[in-house]
Each structure stands twice: as C-alpha cells, then as structure tokens.
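sorry for the late reply, my laptop died twice this morning and i had to redo everyting from scratch. anyway the thing you sent over, i finally got around to it. pasting the sequence first so we're on the same page, its 368 residues, then the predicted structure underneath. double check i copied it right bc i was rushing
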Amino acid sequence: MRALAVALATVALALPAASAGGDAKIAYVLGKRATIVYLGSPLRQPIVLTRSGPPRWSGDGRLLSIGGWIVGRARLQATKLAWAPTGETAAYSKQDGTVILWTPKGSRTVVDAKWGATTFAWGPNGKLALGRSVCHVPCGVPLHQEVWIWRNGSLRRVAGPLRGVFMPIVAGFAPDGRVLWWPDEQGSGSIAADGLPLYANRNRITKTLVFPDFIVRCGRHLAVVAGGDRFTTHGKRILFDGRDVSDDTTRSWVSPSCTAKGKLVAAAGRNWEEHPIGAEHRAIWQLLPTRLQLTRPPSGWTDESPHLLADGSVLFVRTRQTAHKQNGEWITTNRGLLERVARGKLTEIAAMKFAAADTSANWLNYYG
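ok and here's the structure:
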C-alpha cells in the first residue's frame, strides 16, 4: 500500500524562493494529466501530457519537469532527471548511460556512455554524486565499481573500487559533504529487498531499504529510516543525525520529512510482519521538537508520504485499496486523497482514483 500510494499520487513539492512571496505549490501526475495546485488558493492549473512521468520542480521552484519534459522549455531523452537544490540546473541520464547537465542557456556532458554511470544525485554548490560500474559484454566482474563527485568539470573518487559485484546506488549527500550510497550486490532485487548497508563515502552507517524517501536531508540535518528485512511495517526506526528519535518499538516508522530548523515528522503503524501485503494502517506523527500524533485515518485507510511545508503544515496522501471480482478476474481499485494538516485541521487538496486488473502492468511486482 505504501508503494501504491506513491504510484497513485506522485507529488513534487516546491517552496517559493526566499526572496519571493506566496504560498507553496505542488504538482501531481495521474495518468496523462498533471495538475499544479497553489496552496492557499483555489487555482488549479491542468497540463495535458503526451507521456507520463514523475514531476519535479527546479531548485528555485520556477520550472517543472515531468519525466524528460521541462514544461515550456525542452523535451529531453531522459531516463532520469534531477534538479540541483538551487537555481534552474538539471542533470539527466540517457538510455546509453550518458549524463548531461541542462540549463536554460544550454547543455554539457558530465560523463559519456563509456564512463559507466549507474546513478546520480545532487548535492550543494554544484556537486553531483555519481555511481560507476563499467561492464563490457561479456562482462564477468565489472570494472571501476566506484563512487565519484563531479563539480565544474572535475571528478574526484570518494569510494571504491569495490571487490566482487556491487553496483553503487548513490542517494545524495550527508550534511558533512560525504556521498550517501548503497552497494547493490549483483544487482539482485531479492538481496536489495531485504535492505542494503548505507555508506557515507567509505564508512558504513546503517542498514536500510533502498527507497528514496528513506534518506532525507534538510539543511544540516539528516533523517534515515534504519532497519533491514523487506517489510516496511516491521522494525523500522528513524535516525535523526544518528540518534534514534522514534524510540517506540511498538510501531514501525517510515518516510521522514524534516526542516532545516529541526522539525521532524514521519509515518508510523503497528510493528508487524505484514501478511498479506497491502494491509498498512499508518498515521502521521510529529517526532520533533515534541511527539504528537497528527492524523487518525479511518479503518481501511492509511496515511503515507508526509511532506513538511515551511509554515509547519504537513502534506500527505491518505489512500485505500479495495478489490472485487469481475468476469472471473480480480480488479483492484486505489483511492487517494491528497491532504494537508495544519494545527489539527485537515484540508483536502485533491482526490484521485484508478482501477486495474491484478494481471495488468499497472501493478508493482513482488519487489516493488
């Protein structure tokens, strides 16, 4: 259900630049339609899509990308696109592994296809972390399994070469400037499903599941969801700057969101090995500066993916999954409500729904 909530309502958040007034704005994609919502206003701006993809805002909140389309600017052959934390600079990868830097003024190549980039993630001051693994068919053990930092055309290795078969998956930067990454052993979905060790450069920190919202940086703070095994409902805790702030083993804690001033929220439900998958029942909690349960979802619903806004309110997805049999085949329906909670009051931002046969390509696989 947690993964389905992300699939149902892929949400990108943008906060206005410090010099610009106004409320936060969000964008979400459902099928072949994107919608921009201006919080604090009834205004909704629809965008018709020829191809769907995850929405992302530029660092200054002025440009929106949906997949490889930078709305109103460029259509890029991108398999992945990520914006730098400030300004209007993006990095994207092509199918052949080339990584390119894009700005409104033009593009440049960061590394070419032969270099072997596997993943990338932005840090501060124009730094781009790159995972590397060079494999020429027939491959055997790949060469140059390493982690690098690129900045202004220069490359610096910070981890590796790794022994064995480990593809580095970079996740971002720690507040001290080290690169956070996982060693993906043999590219095995089964091994990764039970969690991988998280490193900062060459130092192991903890073991986590390989989800992008399990590692969150906010200014000088870092929030990490620690704990192995593939059940997000079992044994997960929040480390904030290395300290266990969840401090409650009756619940399993996921999806932290924090601010530079040290406020922290997360989603949590009872601590159990979930059988069958899809029976989550989480609520949104504030962990810092004080502990407070912010939401109480009705039976059958779960609250997921919290995002703290600058005004202290929290945006999250409330979702529910139901199923019925039609012509001998099970049809699963997901409903999602994009909600905002502020000072104990809930406000619905958007409502979404989709249904599909369980055998269709819309559903995530076993390791999803």
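The chain has a mean pLDDT of 88.
thats about all i looked at so far, will dig more tmrw
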